[in-house]
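Quiz preparation item.
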């Protein structure tokens, strides 16, 4: 999971880059409290997904079910968000 920081809402979760739906919509998602921002600088107040399906605020599809997934390096490149990435948590880089 490529992440851009720690969540300021819960103070615990990593803010990962999540891809939602086939349109490759990029979101910043707290893997702990599900706070969402639409840009990696996390401006303003976060959005919280609609329950019970944890729906994406852009496409209304579930953010935890396929085709949604954590971004790959190629997807981070396409989003042009490389400058915001702090690390790849799974690979320790």
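Solution:
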């Amino acid at each position: 999971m490529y992440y851009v920081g720690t969540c300021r809402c819960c103070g615990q979760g990593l803010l990962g880059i999540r891809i939602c739906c086939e349109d490759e919509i990029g979101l910043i998602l707290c893997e702990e409290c599900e706070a969402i921002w639409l840009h990696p600088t996390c401006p303003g107040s976060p959005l919280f997904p609609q329950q019970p399906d944890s729906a994406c605020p852009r496409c209304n599809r579930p953010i935890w079910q396929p085709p949604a997934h954590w971004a790959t390096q190629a997807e981070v490149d396409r989003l042009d968000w490389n400058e915001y990435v702090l690390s790849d948590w799974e690979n320790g880089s």
